[in-house]
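From the pipeline queue, job 12 of 40. The input is one protein chain; the requested action is below.

Action: predict structure.
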Amino acid sequence: MRVVAGSARGLRLAAPHGDGIRPTGDRVREAVFNALHSRGAVVGASVLDLFAGTGALGIEALSRGAARAVFVEHSRSHADLIEVNLATCGFSDRAEVVVADARTWLVANSGPWDLALLDPPYSFDDWPALLAGLDAGLVVVESDRGLEQALGWHVERVRRYAGTVVTLLSPEDGDPGSSPP
């Protein structure tokens, strides 16, 4: 797995093998970030990479000009891996890695975020509660299925890449954090 574009383009990111982690593939990351770039959503952005795994999504955002990123991962060994990947790319000074349960952490740290990257295990199904507690200008959801409309969020775009479905969401009224729970 490599950083697709930006200042860290081509650098190889470390990823664990066989422990249930599912890093976002290069092709999917490239398509997602090309769409985000066309919206002006990355350069200078504050980014939340929730359910961070290897950190590939947040690192791609930093490589493409995001100002800062917070990576939230419940596994200490995966968080250590994210820190290694950040150091490899030279982004440690613009990043924070938090070891915590994503939903619990989000209750106390809802935002505001310019961009939130949500890539939980495919079995995750508590999208309404998660999205209700998030204050973000744009949200990227990666799952194995499309999301039902979440209260307070507008579906901007849905794309399928083999077994991965990527959904871009924005607050319904354009004002992050003002959507009803």
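Job complete. The two ends are 37 Å apart (CA to CA).
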